[in-house]
């Protein structure tokens, strides 16, 4: 059911005033997917993201009498999930994160032989590590823009920051990644190997 077909105010009233579990289930179904997406963008771990969002909904239910006082429910829920996800990120420093998508990188690298495949794997590992080493907020902004393909303004609204701040985070992230790639490229110069020379030029094209 589309959000526009649901009277959210009525759901909030039934949840807060009548302890209506069926209304809360509809409320849950309405917001769960988008909140899970946000948690996953930050945490890059399905299990922890799911637990984080469920914890937020549990908190909403336990404090349901306060729901009618919330002016912007969408923003309130996003901020709750964002803050709780950041808390989890700080507590779970050793969590296993999903790697970067190979799609964008593969457009730049032609994997036609074992040497090329090895190069691609090594490079992706280097880039993944560079992203993981970004400052916390910078990493989140980078993933939202570059991996999830949100616009700068969408990310600014979602994280309650200015568009200029988003731009600064992206510039920092790309500079770190470029430095990582340049360092890697400088180590793969293998004189006499035509394939490696071609790949080296492709990699340099990626960071131009």
Task: Describe this protein's structure.
- The chain is elongated and about 65 Å long.
- It is mainly α.
- Helix 3 crosses helix 4 and helix 6 packs across helix 9 (163-186).
- It folds into two domains: 3-91, Orthogonal Bundle (Rna Polymerase Sigma Factor, Chain: A); 103-206, Arc Repressor Mutant, subunit A, CATH 1.10.10.
- The chain starts with 7 loop residues before the first helix and ends with a helix.
- The protein contains ten helices and no strands.
- The chain has helices spanning 8-18, 21-43, 46-62, 73-91, 103-106, 114-132, 136-147, 152-159, 163-186, 194-206.
Q: What is the assembly state of the chains in this entry?
A: single chain
Q: CATH homologous superfamily of the largest domain - what is it?
A: Winged helix-like DNA-binding domain superfamily/Winged helix DNA-binding domain
Mean of residue pLDDT values: 77
How far apart, in Å, are the first and last alpha carbons? 45 Å
CATH class of the largest domain: Mainly Alpha
**Count of the domains:** 2
Share of residues in strands:
under 5%
Task: Specify the overall morphology.
Answer: elongated
What's the Cα radius of gyration?
A: 22 Å
- Helix segment tally: 10
CATH architecture of the largest domain: Orthogonal Bundle
Strand count, sense and barrel status of the largest sheet are: none
CATH fold-type name of the largest domain: Arc Repressor Mutant, subunit A
Helix content: over 70%
H-E order: HHHHHHHHHH
Low-confidence stretches: 1-5, 100-113
The count of β-strands is 0
Question: Which structural category fits the helices and strands?
Answer: mainly alpha
């Amino acid at each position: 059911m589309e959000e526009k077909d649901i009277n959210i105010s009525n759901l909030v009233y039934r949840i807060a005033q009548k302890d209506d579990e069926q209304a809360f289930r509809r409320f849950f179904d309405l917001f769960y997917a988008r909140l899970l997406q946000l948690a996953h963008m930050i945490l890059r771990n399905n299990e922890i993201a799911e637990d984080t969002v469920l914890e937020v909904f549990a908190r909403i239910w336990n404090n349901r009498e306060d729901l009618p006082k919330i002016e912007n429910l969408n923003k309130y829920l996003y901020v709750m999930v964002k803050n709780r996800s950041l808390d989890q990120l700080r507590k779970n420093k050793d969590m296993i994160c999903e790697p970067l998508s190979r799609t964008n990188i593969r457009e730049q690298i032609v994997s036609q032989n074992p040497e090329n495949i090895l190069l691609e794997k090594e490079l992706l590992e280097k880039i993944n590590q560079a992203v993981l080493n970004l400052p916390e907020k910078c990493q989140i902004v980078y993933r939202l823009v570059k991996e999830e393909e949100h616009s700068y303004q969408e990310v600014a609204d979602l994280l309650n920051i200015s568009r200029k701040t988003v731009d600064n985070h992206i510039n920092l992230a790309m500079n770190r990644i470029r430095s990582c790639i340049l360092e890697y490229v400088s180590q793969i110069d293998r004189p006499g190997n035509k394939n490696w020379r071609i790949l080296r030029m492709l990699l340099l094209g990626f960071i131009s």
